[in-house]
TrEMBL record:
Pfam families: HTH_6 (PF01418), SIS (PF01380). It comes from Lutimaribacter marinistellae. Residues 134-272 form the SIS domain. This is MurR/RpiR family transcriptional regulator. The keyword RNA-binding does not apply.
Length: 295
């Protein structure tokens, strides 16, 4: 059994024993689960400082999950480093190892490879200035309508939800019981439509983009080909690589692109946006919407 598998077993054990750990030990365990690569290279004092707990907390945590102490706990992680397992990656070797891992190993490797390739291809075809121009159009607009149907409906609503934590002019369409064209009825030259569809292209999205252009909206389109009907009509067009071994197109690169676009909107926005987002989340904490974790 190689070091990677052993260290993974340690992480699984931490997760399984989570409820039995003290609140302070849970803070230590959380740091390990979120930063496993640090374990093999850090002394108990260094990792305790990073996790904001006392060194003895890591020792007690290690013992609570069946190890003699922190050094014993750290050994599998150090072995993983020695074998080069945590250097990410030699991707070809990593994917080859996945393919050997069982009946579904090949599918797992194909999905991982497609996701990584899609993100790389998407960002390789976009430059920062193009994103900035689209972000400035969004920030200076009166309203932003985000349109996605089918698999892209969730992508559009996720983008709108995140944007709405700091800005109020975002609307995911089509609204329940409505159509995209109806939702755009009173939109005009001061507004922006963000539309997304991939092959086979959804006719209602293509038609909504056409109507939006007629009404003077600025159109930002996300699709899978320069020949896509919504890319050809867009003021700002972005290509997302969506190939995947599964039946449906992948959303990985689309989500990554939308998250990046939103980060650019915040970057070009006024300083009040950061304060709005902080106020939004502070209110949620006050209302008990978030689970409060020990500090």
């Amino acid at each position: 059994m190689n070091g990677t598998n052993v260290s993974s077993q340690v992480l699984e054990r931490l997760s399984e024993e989570w409820d039995a750990l003290t609140p302070e030990a849970q803070k230590a365990a959380r740091y390990v689960l979120e930063n496993p690569n640090d374990v093999g290279v850090s002394t108990v004092r260094e990792i305790a400082e990073a996790a904001k707990v006392k060194p003895n907390t890591f020792v007690r945590m290690a013992r609570q999950v069946g190890f003699e102490g922190y050094e014993d706990f750290r050994a599998p992680f150090r072995e993983a480093i020695r074998q080069g397992a945590v250097s990410f990656p030699d991707r070809a070797r990593w994917l080859q190892e996945i393919r050997k891992s069982g009946d579904l190993g090949g599918l797992y490797a194909d999905m991982a490879e497609a996701a990584l390739r899609n993100v790389e291809e998407t960002f390789a075809g976009i430059d920062a200035e193009t994103l900035k121009a689209a972000a400035e159009a969004i920030w200076s607009s009166r309203q932003v309508f985000t349109l996605g149907v089918g698999v892209n409906n969730a992508n559009a609503r996720n983008f709108t939800y995140l944007a709405s934590t700091g800005m109020t002019q975002f609307h995911a369409i089509p609204r329940p019981g409505s159509t995209a064209i109806d939702d755009l009825a009173w939109a005009g030259k001061d507004d922006v439509l963000i539309a997304m569809t991939c092959r086979p292209y959804r006719s209602e999205v293509v038609e909504a983009v056409r109507i939006a252009r007629e009404q003077g909206l600025t159109v930002i389109a996300i699709s899978d080909s320069p020949a896509s009907p919504i890319i050809r009509q867009a003021h700002h067009g972005f290509l997302a690589a969506v190939d995947t071994p599964q039946f449906f197109p992948s959303s990985v690169s689309t989500l990554a692109l939308l998250e990046t676009l939103l980060s650019f909107v915040i970057a070009v926005a006024s300083d009040e946006i950061v304060e709005r987002v902080e106020t939004f989340h502070r209110r949620r904490h006050q209302l008990g919407i978030y689970l409060e974790e020990p500090e």
